[in-house]
Design brief:
This protein is an alpha/beta fold. The protein is about 50% helix and about 10% strand. Mean pLDDT is about 85; it is low at about 1-5 and about 15.
Length: about 525
């Protein structure tokens, strides 16, 4: 115990050596999602550590109350008046929910998708105030923190500010990173968009390669947009007309994951797994929640949420959920903003928002029905809660497979296949089988058993980058410079095959010569 305390004191002293650093943070410019919540948490961690944080957001951004209790400096820009990219249209969200993986990738990477609208609408307001950006550049920040998904506008901001940079990857080991940064052995590591585990059949391995190549191919539209955007802004910002502006070339990357959660896989030393940003004492719950929970008695309660993006649901499926919930003895908190279902039971409370992490830590919680978003999945693990996963799109299938197959914390239901009978059966199975709860508690124990918690990890590595003015020494430059032919050793294989072919041909020719020589000599002797 004494050794542990001394270790923690030494660590705290080490991370406390760099105080008063200046940090510039740019979250992804969308509605309040888990991506933004994570960036807010990072800002609070660094502010509480004594650093001066500047947070650059649009004027529609809902500034969290905690920010007003700190010294965080909020800088804002004008969001486009039509807000076309601020919140994804509900019909697009519903289309995602019903799509196959192929259809989903088509939607994501099409040239007219919401991401492209987001870029086109933000290019002007994002960099409109050159005086403001000049002020940012002259501030000579010790550290810049960007969202890894914002690789077009974020990449330009990184190039312009030219300061040490850390990226935040909310969905874990996301596909858009370069292979030199996080090598992806497709034989046993599934890409982020597929529902496979690390034990793949021949067909699944083949499909894993297929989807990987499909994503690489589809991303060409994004690269075209990146270069087009750079062409518009380079001269305006006084930057060279080059396309060498990769966001992924940051000094460090924080990944929302750890190896108690994700499958064992290779990473580079500048990739820092961080799981449990919200691992903190739960806040007191409002009276309306307490009253509803107490009314359930020993039966407890269930949480049902599909996150911040789907605000509604088609009539058929919302009636399925409402009818199934009405038959339960447990009470249900259902995060939902659409029309009230006709069959809604008295045991179900509809809410446009709920304090998810605080409710997940309540001792009377019995089950978490979730879309398996990255942050929600991490919260389920850290709170030791059994789940029913109903993934809707992209990385949610990936996280659902981890929770249900690797950690065995619950069961999965396909949204397109859901029926009242199926939902009721799955809920009763997870509630009635104590093994799921036991597995969830084991996953919680493993995830929490780390040398230091997530907050200290964030603080230490941020200060490390500030102290050393970057962390390029942690990057593998040779791997970055290798092309695919060299990376996969195809040039070596090619030369080896050529040499082997040459050796075999020489052997065949030599054998034929020897054979002819011996045969002809034998024939001569026979004639004589």
């Amino acid at each position: 115990m004494a050794a542990t305390i001394l270790t923690m004191m030494a660590f705290c002293l080490a991370v406390g050596l760099i105080n008063g650093g200046t940090v510039f943070m740019v979250p992804y410019a969308l509605v309040k999602t888990s991506r933004l919540a994570a960036m807010e948490k990072i800002a609070l961690i660094l502010t509480q550590a004594g650093h001066n944080v500047t947070y650059y957001v649009h004027n529609e951004y809902d500034i969290p109350n905690e920010f007003f209790e700190t010294s965080i400096n909020i800088e804002q820009y004008e969001y486009p008046s039509d807000k076309i990219a601020y919140s994804a249209p509900e019909d697009l969200v519903q289309e995602f929910m019903m799509s196959t993986i192929e259809g989903e990738l088509d939607i994501m990477f099409a040239k007219d998708n919401i991401f492209f609208h987001y870029i086109h609408h933000l290019v002007h307001p994002y960099f409109n105030d050159l005086h403001q950006w000049k002020k940012f550049k002259d501030a000579f920040f010790d550290l810049v923190i960007l969202d890894s998904w914002d690789f077009i506008l974020g990449g330009i901001a990184k190039q312009y500010l030219d300061r040490p940079t850390i990226l935040w990857s909310n969905a874990g080991y996301e596909m858009h990173f370069e292979n030199w940064l996080m090598p992806l052995p497709l034989a046993h590591i599934p890409i982020v968009a597929v529902p496979y585990s690390d034990h793949m059949s021949f067909t699944e391995r083949a499909m894993n390669v297929y989807y990987y190549l499909m994503m690489i191919w589809c991303k060409r539209n994004w690269y075209d947009l990146r270069d087009e955007t750079w062409g518009k802004l380079a001269g305006k910002l006084g930057l060279p007309p080059t396309t060498n502006h990769k966001l992924s070339d940051g000094d460090l990357i924080f990944i929302q994951s750890n190896f108690a959660y994700f499958y064992p896989r290779p990473i580079m030393p500048n990739v820092i797994p961080v799981l449990g940003l919200k691992d903190k004492p739960h806040k007191p719950i409002d009276d309306k929640f307490i009253e509803f929970i107490d009314g359930a008695g020993e039966n407890g309660f269930i949480i049902m949420t599909f996150g911040s993006m789907p605000r509604g649901m088609d009539e058929h499926r919302r009636e399925i959920f409402a009818t199934a919930f009405a038959k339960l003895k447990e009470r249900v908190f259902w995060r939902y903003s659409g029309p009230i279902p006709k069959s809604l039971g008295e045991n179900t409370m509809l809410l446009p928002w709920l304090p998810q992490n605080d409710l997940l830590g309540h001792p009377k919680l019995k089950l978490f029905i979730t879309h398996c978003g990255a942050s929600g999945s991490a919260e389920a693990v850290f709170n030791g809660v059994p789940i029913i996963g109903i993934p809707l799109f992209y990385d949610q299938r990936h996280h659902c497979t981890i929770l249900t197959q690797r950690l065995k914390m619950g069961l999965v239901v396909n949204f397109s296949d859901i029926t009242e009978k199926l939902l009721t059966s799955v809920v009763n199975e997870v509630l009635g089988n104590p093994q799921y709860k036991q597995n969830a508690l084991k996953a919680q124990e493993l995830a929490r058993d780390q040398p230091v918690n997530a907050s200290y990890t964030i603080q230490y590595w941020a200060e490390y980058v500030m102290k050393h003015k970057g962390a390029k020494h942690l990057q593998s430059r040779p791997m970055k410079e290798l092309n695919s032919f060299q990376y996969y050793m195809l040039d070596i294989v090619f030369v080896f095959v050529i040499c082997l072919t040459f050796a075999v041909m020489c052997f065949i020719l030599l054998t034929r010569r020897v054979y002819h020589f011996v045969f002809c000599k034998h024939q001569k002797l026979k004639k004589q």
